[in-house]
Amino acid sequence: MMKRFAVLLCGVVCAAVLLAGCSHMSVKHLNRQHWTLESGQSLPMKFWRFDYAVVPLENRFAVRGTAFPVQDAIPRWAEYIGDLWFSAYLSDKEGHVVASDLRVFQPSKLDRAQGVDFEFVLKPDTLETDDELYITFGYRMKLTANRFDDVTKSPGDPTGGEVFFASEGALTRY
Q1: Are the C-beta atoms of 47 and 139 separated by less than 8 Å?
Q2: pLDDT band at 4 (very low <50, low <70, confident <90, very high)
């Protein structure tokens, strides 16, 4: 009995190691653009448009810009940010992520005209000069009509409390 358990445990551990070794983050499903240094660019996603520039730093790159909500994609009643994070992803031509960074933002009023400023730092482990690289962004957001709708309303409360949620990001592939 103990011997069978040891063999089974060994098999489970080996399978977990193999799966972990074969997995990678992928952004192939997202809108991407060629990686261009020091040039203002704009990348539209489903719910946000990212206007940005890539600036080389010592041994890494900064991606600086502003994200604007896509006007027709987000309901007009969604005026407050309850939860928001952005990610920047640097990937190869197959969509495998070679570097990424994440920023989490404080709850605030959504200013559609001003947008949300961001800065990411990307530091790939290695970069070959002939690598074809792409940049894309990810996000997760929860928007509400009123500042505390998502925390003060109970489930099923007919007096409001709408929440708009959207997310795009890298996926783990095996």
Answers
A1: yes
A2: very low
CB 142 within 8 A of CB 75: no
Grade residue 11 by pLDDT with cuts at 50, 70 and 90. Answer: very low
Rg (CA), the chain: 21
Question: What is the set of domains in the chain, with CATH numbers?
Answer: 26-173 (2.60.40)
Residue 143's pLDDT band (cuts 50, 70, 90): very high
CB atoms within 10 A of CB 133: 17
Number of Cβ within 10 Å of residue 94's Cβ equals: 12
Q: Which range, of 32-41, 44-53, 96-105, averages the lowest pLDDT?
A: 32-41
> Where do we find the tokens 């952004």?
27
